[in-house]
Amino acid sequence: MPIQTNIADQCCFKHDNLPFEYFCIDHDVLSCKECLAESHRSCQKVMSVDIACKGAKQSQSFIDATELVDHVLETTHTIGKDEQDFIENIVKEANSVKTAVRIVKEEAIRHIEALEKSLLHDLDLKKDKIIQKSKTTIKETEDIKKSTKDKQDIFDLVNKHGSEKQAFIAVHAYKQDLTDLEKRVTGITEKSTRFTINLNPQKLQESIHSIGSIELSEVPSAVKFVQKKKCQSQMPIVQAQSMPQFVYKQDLDTKNVEIYGMTINDNNEVILVDT
Ligand SMILES: [Zn+2]
Ligand SMILES: [Zn+2]
């Protein structure tokens, strides 16, 4: 695979055509001539890239950089696969929800059909009761009519063919019967009412607002990118420590001794190493 950018010719991002000639250890950044003058004038540790680059391939920062590249690529692959799996899963879940919605709808329809059946049964009961009441009135009226007709026949007969005495007796003999018939017919007309039968519809659009709602629950994805700690500077930064104050105690004769090393221990005592 051809390298598209010649890395060796990589120039400063700020100063287009200037090459990176320096490396500032203080800021841990590459620097061109201009950058050096602008931003690193007071920096303590600035070195030439040619010197700083020695052993770069074996350096921790190079290893860290290549590992980070691998890590990012691996994670992008995992994220891509995870998102693809997630899409497939959400499509499956949405299809299950569609089935569940259909079941809820069918249950609602069955429920409404049951309500319709109960309503029609109630209608029949009420209708039958009203009709029964009217039939009873008809029967009672027929009975009154028959009894009254009997009396009419008697009064007609007396009127056409009877004597005054027979008319007088008829009036008084049937007085109570006529009063009873009058009471019965009055009773019917006084109690008589007229029903109308109507539907008081339940406004379903008002009482049923929905048959469910779609809920989402969100949890963090299982794919995690653990950020590696920032690449360390290629050159270790050693902070200069201030030297302790020493107290003169005695002379040391080192005339015939070869000193190979010299150090200061934690008790600020100078140690000379001769072997
Ligand atoms: Zn620059
Ligand atoms: Zn700097």
Automatic annotation (TrEMBL):
Gene3D superfamilies: Classic Zinc Finger. It comes from the Eukaryota. This is B box-type domain-containing protein. It comes from Mytilus galloprovincialis.
